Amino acid sequence: MGMDYNFFAFMSRMKYIERWSLMRSTVKENILEHSLQVAHIAHALAVINNKVFSGNLNAGYIACAAMYHDASEVITGDMPAPIKYFNPSIKKAYKDIEQVANDKLLSMLPDSLRPEYEKLIKIDPESNEYAYLKAADKLSAYIKCIEELKTGNREFQKAKISIKADLDKITLPEVKYFVDNFIGAYEKTLDELD
User: Is residue 38 within 8 Å of 141, Cβ to Cβ?
Assistant: First the structure.
C-alpha cells in the first residue's frame, strides 16, 4: 500500500484562489486558469524564440514551469500586486514566504520525484527561462485587462495602461512579436474571430 502524498491534491486547490481581489471583475479568474494561460503564452514565446529568432529554448520546460509559477499561492493566497510590491521590505518578506510555501509543497512529494518538481517550482530568477515566464505572466495580465474592458468594465483601464508600459520595457523580441501578431485578436468578438 502506498503513502498519501498531498502535493497534487494541493495543486488541485489552485482553482479556489481568486486573482484580482482588489478589482471588480466581470469574469472571475483563479490561479489554475491563469497558470494555464501563462503556460500557453510562455510556450508560445519559447516557440517564437526558436522558430522566428533562431533560438534554442526548451519550450516544454518553460510551459511546465509556467503551470507551477503561482503554486505557492495555494498556501499563501494571492496577494494583490499593489501590496506585494509596495516597498522593498514587503516584497522581500513576501518572496521569503513564497519560498517557505514552495518548500512545504515540495515536501509533499516522494523524495524520488521532488527534484523534478523543484526545477519547475523554484525556477532560477536569473535564468533566461524565468524572463520568458515573467513576460508570459505580464502578457496574461494584459489580456485580462483587455477582456474586462471589452465587457465595459472600466475598472481595468488604469491597470491596462500600467501593464502595457511594463510590457514595453521588456526587451525580449518575442514579446513584441506576440503583441504585434496575437494581442489584437483578444479585442475581437467571437464572430470577428471566425
Answer: no
Residues of the chain with pLDDT under 50: none
Give residue-wise pLDDT tens across range 145-161.
Answer: 999 999 999 999 999 99
Residue 25: C-alpha distances to residues 28, 31, 32, 49 (Å): 6, 14, 17, 33
Q: What is the DSSP string of 148-166?
A: HHHTT-GGGHHHHHHHHHH
Q: What is the pLDDT of residue 83?
A: 66
CB 41 within 8 A of CB 136: yes
On whether the CB atoms of residues 30 and 16 are closer than 8 A, the answer is: yes
* Number of DSSP helices (H) and strands (E) in the chain, helices first: 11, 0
- Scanning the structure block, which residue is given the C-alpha cell 516557440? 47
| Pair 124, 143: CB distance under 8 Å | no
Identify the CA nearest to 65 among candidates 149, 124, 8: 124
Distance CA 138, CA 154 (A): 19
Domain borders along the chain are 7-14+22-193
Structural class in CATH, domain 7-14+22-193 = mainly alpha
Q: Residue 144's CB: how many other CB atoms inside 10 A? A: 23
Q: What angle, rounded to 10 degrees, do the helices at 157-169 and 128-150 form? A: 150
Residue among 117, 78, 135, 76 nearest 100 (CA): 76
